[in-house]
Structures are given as structure tokens and as C-alpha cells.
Amino acid sequence: HPRRHTQETQLREFNLTEIEAMLGSYTKVLFVRDPFQRLIFTFMQAMGSSSSFSSFVQDVLDSGQHNSSVAWKPLVSLCQPCLVQYDYVVMFGFLSQELGHLLRRVGLPVDSLLPEFTDTQVRWTYSWLSEQLFSELSLQQKQKLSHFYRWDLAAFPFSSSFLSG
């Protein structure tokens, strides 16, 4: 798009005409990850700040939707999938299949750009870890998390999420 902007420029900083022109000229790709897995990843990154996963989740719930960190904020509020028509939605855990397809569709060489993925191992590890950490949560925390991420769970096919239930 002709208007110069930096990597930090937010879409909301442009007027509607500029936004429509930009979105129409780009291939829009959205990478999504199960919200519960995003919580686990964030918790693992900041292991020292919370004594347990349960207390970390309580901090997330207490922060509310509007004050939440980008690391665990619901994707629907960050990416606006109802307003932006994404050309591709790539699910974490299926990167090796989906990225190859995406690169071919946009005319890029697949073999030279794709790193080695260990999706099967990653899915198994997150499944095991999710089960362990989910069992630490109270029923009330589980219900509140499901409510906190209700729009993500409705918008994306996270059928195996611990929060979809």
C-alpha cells in the first residue's frame, strides 16, 4: 500500500478508505491457536510470576477482557475476523500441512522456506500438559475461562479444546 507505515502502526490509525484499500491489496493470513494453549504458553514463559497455574488463570480472569494482555486476550478482539475477511486461517498444530498449501497458493517455493515441524509431538505434549493444568482449576475457573473465550470458541474450530465443553 502506498502510504508509509511502520511495523508498529495499528490499523485503527488509518481512515476507513485507507483501511479498505490496504485490506483489499493484501493477502490476509490469520494464525490461530487454542486459547487454553495460549494461556499455557504464556504461563510457561512467565513461570516466576505466579505460584501456580490456577493463580495465573485467576489473575487473567481478574484482569477482564479490556485490561488483558495481548498474550491471552481473546483472538476475536485482536483480529476482528467478523470485520476482516481473511484469505487464510492457519491453525497452530497443523502448520506443516497448512503452510505448504498457503505458500503454493501465493506462488512461493515451498521446500526452501518451510522449517521442520514437529506438530505431532507438539500436539501430544500440549494435550498432556493441558490435561494436567486443567485439572488444577476449579469448576468456577473453568466456566469463567470458557465464558472469557466464548467468541474465540465460536469463531474457530477448536473442537478438542478443554474449554469447549
Automatic annotation (TrEMBL):
The alphabetical list of record keywords is:
Carbohydrate metabolism, Glycoprotein, Golgi apparatus, Membrane, Signal-anchor, Transferase, Transmembrane, Transmembrane helix
Which GO molecular function annotations are given, in alphabetical order? sulfotransferase activity
Q: How does it sit in the membrane?
A: Single-pass type II membrane protein
Broad class of where this protein is predominantly found: Golgi
Write down the EC number: 2.8.2.-
Its subcellular locations are: Golgi apparatus membrane
Q: What class of enzyme is it?
A: transferase
Q: Give GO terms for biological process.
A: carbohydrate biosynthetic process; dermatan sulfate proteoglycan metabolic process
Q: Please name the InterPro entries in this protein's record.
A: Carb_sulfotrans_8-10, Sulfotransferase
What's a GO cellular component annotated to this UniProt protein? Answer: Golgi membrane
One Pfam family, please name it: Sulfotransfer_2
Q: Which family does it belong to?
A: Belongs to the sulfotransferase 2 family.
Q: What is this protein called?
A: Carbohydrate sulfotransferase
Task: Please report the organism this UniProt entry assigns to the protein.
Answer: Anhinga rufa (African darter)
